[in-house]
TrEMBL record:
This is Glutamate--cysteine ligase. The keyword ATP-binding applies. Catalyzes the synthesis of gamma-glutamylcysteine (gamma-GC). The keyword Disulfide bond applies. GO terms for molecular function: glutamate-cysteine ligase activity.
Length: 457
């Protein structure tokens, strides 16, 4: 999330929180595709991490991007920590360890998404390369320890950094040493949201497997294909993971609100200052728990929107649905991830087929799949088959959905071509992580340094 929300409307009751989510309902002709992708900046000289300050640091890149794009700066305690397009169509933000993120504009086609990503990477290279900086497309930081990883001066991250070790063993790794590609998709009603939430929760482990791309930590293999996937198993299980109540046949907005109300908060913003609220849940906040800690003590709709942004389930519900399972990766993956999910969820026939395929999958089965994927990738077992075979069926459905959409570029090609990188994973039977490990053990001679050349933007 590039910029935290300031909406000072007071909350009168829980019904308003439910309505906030329901306001995301959109007719089909208004559905859009919002793609987010993160990457690790590094100095070409020595493959070292890039700090915030200095003549050739993250701040300098942001300032250069601001001058080039004319976007508005996002400030935190007088420091630039991001940029936002003046009409709200896109933003650039920083993750805790300096991971550079584009939160893309809401677009109509994958063709537009791909052009957007390509333009962004060209723009940031134009600013960063004269500084000796490039960007790495992996799901996990392959070389630097936590101590070596820079920290960005962002107030919410200071609160999270203090809190994470209290609720899990891997939260700091999640914050500082992982990257993702995400896509944000719309729904037209509560029933449509339910179907999309349930299908995408069940298929999120498959997405993690297909995009597995984080096999190295601190210079050597870490035993995982998706280290990022493993990290999410013990980050903060009160606010992340696979949500069992979403599998209910009558799941709705109110159920998500009831869950979110009982998750500890991170912060509230008053007069530009971030107040640590990790000791109370949002329900307790609404009951007056902060009356003696902040000036008014009254919860606002801005507080609720910010709280929703600090929840990390595999699929996150806001006024849209966020697909959160994939590792970061090279440019082709930035196009493939939204294509995969748009094909499954934005065409009626494809959604019917995906729902039929997954309808009998239980929470326990999906959880077992989710736990197997970080180590085993697409070789993970499911019932009497493997995820590789499931992927074949799911990609057929996704391709059908994209074909049915019929969104063609100027050369007459539809969106199905963006699935080709995933077709290759299934045809090979090996993930990107396994290809990296093979290179490490053979042509790279036991060194991870070549990854900075081969997977750099």
């Amino acid at each position: 999330m590039a910029r935290d929300t300031t909406d000072f409307r007071p909350i009168e009751g829980v019904d308003e929180l439910v309505e906030h989510l329901a306001e995301g309902n959109k007719p089909r002709d208004k559905w859009r595709i919002g793609t987010e992708h993160e990457k690790f900046p590094f100095y070409v000289d020595g493959n070292a991490p890039v700090p915030y300050g200095g003549e050739h640091g993250i701040r300098a890149i942001l300032e250069g991007m601001q001058e080039k794009l004319g976007w508005d700066p996002i400030m935190d305690a007088g420091r630039i920590i991001g940029l936002v397009e003046p009409t709200g169509r896109g933003a650039i933000s920083l993750e805790p360890g300096g991971q550079f993120e584009l939160s893309g504009a809401p677009l109509e086609t994958i063709h537009q998404t791909c052009r957007e990503g390509n333009a962004h990477l060209a723009q940031v290279r134009e600013i960063a390369e004269p500084m000796g900086i490039r960007f790495l497309g992996l799901g996990g930081s392959p070389k630097w320890s936590l101590a070596e990883t820079p920290k960005m001066p962002k107030s919410r991250y200071e609160i999270m950094t203090r809190y994470m070790p209290k609720v899990g063993t891997k939260g700091l790794d999640m914050m500082y040493r992982t990257c993702t590609i995400q896509v944000n998709l719309d729904f037209e009603s509560e029933a449509d949201m339910r179907r999309k939430m349930q299908v995408s929760l069940k298929l999120q482990p498959l997405s993690t497997a297909l995009f597995a791309n984080s096999p190295f930590t601190e210079g050597r293999p870490n035993g995982f294909q998706s280290w990022r996937g493993d990290i999410w198993r013990d980050t903060d299980n009160q606010r992340s993971g696979l949500l069992d109540f979403c599998f209910s046949p009558d799941f709705g907005f109110a159920d998500y609100v009831e869950w979110a109300l009982d998750v500890p908060m991170y912060f509230v913003i008053r007069d530009g200052h971030y107040h640590d609220m990790t000791h109370v849940t949002f329900r307790q906040f609404m009951a007056g728990a902060a009356r003696n800690e902040i000036s008014d003590g009254l919860p606002t709709m801005g507080d609720w929107a910010n709280h929703l942004s600090t929840l990390f389930p595999d699929v996150r519900l806001k006024r849209f649905l966020e697909m959160r399972g994939a590792d970061g990766g090279p440019w082709r993956r930035i196009c493939a991830l939204p294509a995969f999910w748009v094909g499954l969820l934005y065409d009626a026939a494809a959604l019917d087929a995906a729902e039929a395929l997954t309808s009998s999958w239980s929470y326990e089965e999906v959880l077992a799949m989710r736990n197997a994927v970080p180590e085993q990738g697409i070789s993970a077992p499911f019932r009497n088959t493997t995820l590789r075979e499931i992927a074949r069926d799911v990609l057929v459905i996704s391709r059908m959905g994209l074909k049915n959409r019929g969104r063609k570029n100027r050369d007459g090609y539809d969106e199905t071509s963006f699935l080709s990188t995933l077709d290759e994973v299934v045809a090979r039977g090996t993930t990107s992580a396994e290809e990296l490990l093979s290179a490490y053990h053979t042509r790279w001679g036991g060194s991870i340094e070549p990854v900075f050349m081969e997977y750099a933007y």
